[in-house]
Amino acid sequence: MNQSISLISVFSSILHFLVVLNFCGGVIVNGDIVREFCKNQSISDVYVNYDFCVSSFEANPLSKTSDIYGLTAISIDLCLKNATYIGTYIDSILKDGKEEPIQYLKECMEFYSSALEDVQVAMKAFNGKDYNGVLEFMTDANIWVKTCKIGFTEGGIDFSPLRKQHDDLYQLIHISLGLTAKILES
Ligand SMILES: *[C@@H]1O[C@H](CO)[C@@H](O)[C@H](O)[C@H]1NC(C)=O
Ligand SMILES: *[C@@H]1O[C@H](CO)[C@@H](O)[C@H](O)[C@H]1NC(C)=O
Asked: How far apart are CA 166 and CA 122, in angstroms?
C-alpha cells in the first residue's frame, strides 16, 4: 500500500516535471530568441539598445513564433517602414519651413532615399536567400544614414530635428546586420 502510493507520487512528479519542461521549452523557443539575440547584440554592438531591440520586435506578434530567418525578415521590414517614414517626416518639416538648415535637410532626404533603395534591394536579396547580398546592401544603407548625420556634424548644425528618426533607423539597420551575420555564421 505504502509502496504503491509512493510509486504513484513518483510517477506524478515525473509527469509534472515533463509538463513543466514542455511548457517552458515552448516559451523559450518562441519568446526568448528575441531577448537572447537582443542581449547579445546590445553587448557586441554599441549602437544597439536592448530595450529598443526587444520592443521593436514585440510590436510584431509574428516575432513570437519566428526563428532567426523570420526575425531577419521582420527587422528588414521595420527598416523599410522607418526609412519610408523619414522621407515623409523631412518633407513635413521642410513644408513647415521652421527648421533652418534647409540645404542639409534636403541632402539628408536624398541620402535617406538612397538608404531606402538599398533596403528594398536587401529585402529582394533576402527573399532570394542571398544573405551576403543582404549584408552588402544593408551595409550600404547604413552608410547613407551615417552620411546624413556627418553632414550636420561637419556643418556645425544642430542634429536634433532628425536625431530620433536617425537613431531609430540606424539601430534597426544594425539589428538587421547582426541577424544576417548570425545566419551567415550558422
Ligand atoms: C547569444 O550568444 C551566445 C554566446 O555567444 C550564443 O551561444 C547564442 O547562440 C547567441 N544567441 C543568439 C540568439 O544570438
Ligand atoms: C521606427 O522604428 C521604431 C522602432 O521599431 C518605432 O518605434 C517607430 O515607431 C518606427 N517609426 C515608423 C514611422 O515606423
From this structure: 19
**42 near 53, Cβ under 8 Å?**
yes
Compute the distance between CA of residue 176 and CA of residue 126 in angstroms, rounded to an integer: 11
Q: pTM of the prediction? A: 0.83
Which set of grid coordinates corresponds to residue 59?
A: 510590436
What is the atom index within ligand 2 of the atom nearest the CA of 52? 4
> Counting atoms of ligand 2 from 1, which one is nearest the CA of 56?
5
In tens, the pLDDT along 16-60 reads 444 344 444 433 445 589 999 999 999 999 999 999 999 999 999
What's the rounded mean pLDDT across residues 158-173? 95
Among 58, 168, 176, the mutation site with the greatest number of ligand 2 atoms within 8 A of its Cβ is: 168
From atom 12 of ligand 2, which residue's Cα is the shortest distance away?
82
Q: Is 82 exposed, middle or buried (0-12, 13-18, 19+ CB in 10 A)?
A: buried
- How many degrees, rounded to 5, is the angle at CA 135 between CA 134 and CA 139? 115
Place of cell 514585440: 58
CA 81 to ligand 2 center in whole angstroms:
8
114: CB partners within 8 A, 6+ apart: 141, 144
